[in-house]
Amino acid sequence: MSERAYNFSAGPAILPEPVLKQAQKDIWNIFDSGMGVLELSHRGPQFDRILAEAEADCREVGNIPDNYRVLFLQGGATLQTAMIPMSFLPAGETADYFDTGKWASDAIKEAKKFGTVHVAGTTKELKYKRLPTEAETKFSPDAAYCFFVSNNTIYGTQWHNLPKSRAPIVCDMSSDFFCRPHDFTKYAMVYASAQKNIGPSGQAIAVISDEFLANAPEGKLATMLDYKVMAAQESRPNTPNTFAIYLMGQCFKWIKNFGGLRAIEEYNKEKAKIVYDYLDNSKFFIPHAEKQDRSLMNITFKCAKPELDEVFIDQAENAGLKTIAGHRSIGGMRASIYNAFPIEGCRALVKFMKDFESKHG
Amino acid sequence: MSERAYNFSAGPAILPEPVLKQAQKDIWNIFDSGMGVLELSHRGPQFDRILAEAEADCREVGNIPDNYRVLFLQGGATLQTAMIPMSFLPAGETADYFDTGKWASDAIKEAKKFGTVHVAGTTKELKYKRLPTEAETKFSPDAAYCFFVSNNTIYGTQWHNLPKSRAPIVCDMSSDFFCRPHDFTKYAMVYASAQKNIGPSGQAIAVISDEFLANAPEGKLATMLDYKVMAAQESRPNTPNTFAIYLMGQCFKWIKNFGGLRAIEEYNKEKAKIVYDYLDNSKFFIPHAEKQDRSLMNITFKCAKPELDEVFIDQAENAGLKTIAGHRSIGGMRASIYNAFPIEGCRALVKFMKDFESKHG
To answer: Are B7 and B323 spatial neighbours (Cβ–Cβ below 8 Å)?
Structure first.
């Protein structure tokens, strides 16, 4: 096999090669300081620079308004699913949640530990192959917030328009953050785990409006669960995950060099089209997600003959198309093609699919 | 300056050079998989191996009994200071805490959000320059647990014997975990952030006895705050911090290659002795910690003439002795010489101190 494979992992996922090469250097000695990036005091001048640049580049890439805080948080997306209701769902109020897949339904379970949840729409009975339509949606009258997961990795669906709630919108953007431009002014809060488009696992980023943040309680929560403390202390009341922040900063710089989110979006569309076009013209493979809601990030499909799925996955693995098995809950295949995934890998996948079809069709 | 400086950072701190060199390779392509360590699915065979080896090596190095769980947890040590009272301090009960410095007093503040705390001993009025004596200690009659911080980075003190509580002992071992052998059977729970002796920041390890773990509540806490969920799902109910676990695993292997914790202890004693011997014979420098409680990991001192501290720090920095400033709360100097810090650096520090003394003495 070649030195680097085409890695279709749904996350932790492939990272940009220039970022990896820079990290290889900086692990040994960053900024010619004689210290590696993992070894820097989180209060020293080198890390001050890393943190400041990461936030500035994030704001620039995302066109994030000044009245939004950018927070670097530990615990991944799962901790966010608890922190949000702990902070923003007071007793006596209700939050609207869309149930569009495993991560959404896990978020619902988590929120129910802390408050009242109303499910505004679900497509569970359809195996989440599409999103709820407006006709299928019912908001509660006065929700504290409306929560949705913008991209559902397991099923390969993605919201291409925001839900039309009048409540503050809270979005888990873990698997499509910075896959295209976002209008942050439409959200009260967005969060994302880093390990898809912008870094390593074990880290989340949150973008919160000052107005929404003001609703959080004061001084009651554990320090690490307190958005206000995190905002006031610029993501470091304790020692932050310095390496994750460094690596996210490198990914933001890579996106800038790529031409920004508009260019990334074009590239992601081009990549996805290569695979979807083939799928749409094949009777051998069956896509899981319905066309109108399908994801730019995760392409889910099966062989029409179910017994061939495992054969496909094994042979793909041997051909250097790695980690293409679908999530255990729905099986089949999943090609995750995040920002850093190269277009050549999409072409290689389609070529492999064609060959496989002609052999087994 | 030479390629790598002597880095006295209190944490994130210097890592073993063989670990950094291995990480440089594995970031690009690990196990010849064609994927970098940051890019591996946390459910794939490569990461299964990394996690299994990290735990096995940790158990072997630490001689951790089978009836103790080893958990890899996100959020650093600070989150532990909340999770412990949330899990193990039920309403109506009291926990004993020793106040031996900033991290201990922060843990007390955090615990008070969730339950009743009794301060069993404090040396706050002495600027924490030593630990409370037995005569100064008063335990509560029936504590849920007794909490202490085994090494106080800021002041340079370290417990060389356990507090004599009859309650289950819970220890924050963040800054001296694996600096020497530990008898885990004497503890109900030990936790440590990784960024001193065993890895990068943003990650903690916990070693908990099954008996103590059984006291934690069931199904009430947020998933990420639930030790029972973490234990049942082997530290990955969600995507763990895969890189931190990898790097901790590499540090455990490095300790094994070094000859284990007994050899590490000898090395750490030898390193500390070089600096303490000089300090004990100098009137120019004044050590902060009292002899009987001083730390193998963090050596704190000042110049007898306070105006020279800043000069010392600046000139040391220029001489490649980096990050030697004391914590802002007590000032002066702090030489953190964790496991990976080389003995040559201690010699270089003493040589620098001698030169400085002869110039300014």
So the answer is: yes
Distance CA B57, CA B55 (A): 6
| Cα separation, A341 vs A257, whole angstroms | 16
pLDDT (tens digit per residue) in B276-319? 999 999 999 999 999 999 999 999 999 999 999 999 999 999 99
- The C-alpha atoms of residue B256 and residue B268 are separated, in whole angstroms, by 15
Question: Tokens in use for A134?
Answer: 């407006």
Q: Three-state DSSP class for A68?
A: strand
The two beta strands, A151-152 and A157-158, are antiparallel
Instruction: Give the per-residue pLDDT at B2.
Output: 52
Q: Binning pLDDT at 50, 70 and 90, where does residue B139 land?
A: very high
Is residue A78 a contact partner of residue A124, using CB atoms and an 8 Å limit? no
User: DSSP state, A325?
Assistant: B
Active site residue A32: no
ipTM here: 0.97
Examine the residue annotation and report whether B254 is marked as an active-site residue of this protein: no
Rounded Cα gap, residues B186 and B164, in angstroms: 11
Domain with CATH 3.40.640.10 in chain A: 18-258
The string over B113-138, giving b where at least 16 C-beta atoms fall within 10 Å of a residue's C-beta and e elsewhere, is: bbbbbebbbbbeeeebbbbbeeeebe
- Cβ of B202 within 8 Å of Cβ of A247? The answer is no
CATH of domain A18-258: 3.40.640.10
pLDDT-wise least confident of B1-5, B103-107, B294-298: B1-5
Half-sphere exposure of A78 (CA within 13 A, CB side): 23
Complete DSSP assignment for B49-77? HHHHHHHHHHHHHHT--TTEEEEEEESHH
The shortest CB-CB distance from B241 to any of A39, A202, A239 is to A202
Using H for helix, E for strand and C for coil, what is the string for A77-100? Answer: HHHHHHHHHHHHCCCCCEEEEEEC
Residue A189, H or E segment: strand A189-193
Give B337 to chain A, closest Cα distance, Å.
13
User: Tokens at residue B271, please?
Assistant: 């390193």
Interface of B with A in 189-228 (CB under 8 A): 193, 195, 200-203, 220-225
Residue A361 has a pLDDT of: 83
Q: How far is CA B106 from the centre of its chain?
A: 15
Location of each CATH 3.90.1150.10 domain in chain B: 6-13+259-360
Query: Which residue is listed with tokens 């503890």?
Result: B187
Q: Give dist(CA A17, CA B178) in Å, integer.
A: 35
Task: Give the integer Cα–Cα distance in Å for A227 and A210.
Answer: 11
Peptide bond before residue B45 is cis, with ω within 30 degrees of 0: no
> Concatenated DSSP letters for A135-178?
TT----TT-S-EEEESEETTTTEE-SS----SSPEEEE-TTTTT
> A151: which residues sit within 8 A by CB, 6+ positions away?
A157, A158, A159, A173, A174, A175, A176, A179, A295, A297, A298
- B172 annotated active-site: yes
Chain B contact present for A329, CB below 8 A: no
CB distance B121 to B138 below 8 Å: yes
Q: Computed over its alpha carbons, how large is the radius of gyration of chain B?
A: 21
Query: What backbone phi and psi angles, to 5 degrees, belong to B196?
Result: -110, -70
Q: Quick check: A132 and A119 in contact, CB under 8 A?
A: no
Cα separation, B307 vs A313, in Å, equals 68
A12 interaction partners in chain B (CB closer than 8 Å): 38-42, 239, 242
User: Which CATH number is A6-13+259-360's, of 3.90.1150.10, 3.40.50.700, 3.40.50.450, 3.40.50.2000?
Assistant: 3.90.1150.10
pTM passes above 0.95: yes
Burial class (CB in 10 A: 0-12, 13-18, 19+), A268: buried
Q: Report the candidate in A190, A163, A186, A169 with the shortest Cα–Cα distance to residue A178.
A: A190
Q: Which two tokens stand for residue A26?
A: 């900086």
